[in-house]
Amino acid sequence: MEVSLTDEVAGTVELNPDRLQELKAFDDTKAGVKGLVDEGVTKIPRLFHHPPDNFVKATNLGKAEHIIPVIDLADVGKDPSSRQEIIGRIKEASEKWGFFQVVNHGIPVTVLEGLKDGVRSFYEQDTEVKKELYSRNQLGSFVYNSNFDLYRSPALNWRDTFMCYLAPNPPKPEDLPLLCRDILLEYGSYVNKLGIALFELLSEALGLHPHHLKNIGCAEGLLSLCHYYPACPEPELTLGTTKHADSSFLTVLLQDHIGGLQVLYQNMWIDIPPVPGALVVNIGDLLQLITNDRFKSVEHRVLANLVGPRISVACFFSSGLKSSPKLYGPIKELLSEDNPPKYRETTVAEHAAYFNAKGLDGTSALEHFRI
């Protein structure tokens, strides 16, 4: 079922008729931001203009303490002391940064490169073919559009996206575009295995049984968002992705060589430079909620860029809007008299619905669930 414009706009930011008309005209092209670039725009439409940010430039000028940890997983099964060392690094990164990168994670470079090529091929195919797949139905097995919060966000992001759920019920191959079908399913099975391994390490970092996070369902759902950030003629006026924190338990991100991902740390924007063969891992809101603020879900953004296109694939461990009625609250074993619960219980679907309705407005969805 296609989501109607009325449904999409209901309960959103105040839209004046002119802005609504401009949004509708952009949406109706079904060509996304890439369509604007293909037309040869030299000035970006005002819909994409963002207010100047207080922290415009990244401030980590080569300082060692401002480098996101890169954690080598090669020795994780070698011996207990190597494993404990890796767990210690993951614990520190999850409490301090909410972000780290992993290398020797078990996913072949050929799969990583193949996926980036497949995603690029999808976006760079004939526009008329892509238009057939353009949709705003968030519950579809494959959803391609530009700006999921098009009618709700204060300013649009300079990127196009397609989304599909890879677990617990992988899509039928015929529901995915031929150009990236096989590689996306293959990558999804690898990320699933990696996620389970990471949840074990995170469980141990919390002092819990290795299977605790997996057993309560943190690894059940996997949602992939494949982004295409075209070259932008005026990158200083817009953003690739607005400041936000993820609504997942955990996010695994594949980014290409172009860069632009930044994390907000102590009121400074810190670059997360691409490391060949590495994957970026970050804590999501749901993991911060169930760890009662022990692990941090940190705000991050993506800059628009002059060179482009930038390709990234974010895999979110969350069943999103398709989740079960299972309630999640702070883990009892982590609570004490000195550390009472800071959040009320919620379902994954309730959190996802609130996040989607709010859109990428630069505010934290977690505050809505705080006691």
Automatic annotation (TrEMBL):
InterPro entries: DIOX_N, IPNS-like_FE2OG_OXY, IPNS-like_sf, Oxoglu/Fe-dep_dioxygenase_dom. GO terms for molecular function: dioxygenase activity; metal ion binding. Keywords: Iron, Metal-binding, Oxidoreductase. Residues 218-319 form the Fe2OG dioxygenase domain. Signal peptide: none annotated. Belongs to the iron/ascorbate-dependent oxidoreductase family. It comes from the Eukaryota. This is Fe2OG dioxygenase domain-containing protein. The lineage of its organism: Eukaryota, Viridiplantae, Streptophyta, Embryophyta, Tracheophyta. Pfam families: 2OG-FeII_Oxy, DIOX_N. Its cofactor is Fe cation. It comes from Psophocarpus tetragonolobus. The keyword tRNA-binding does not apply.
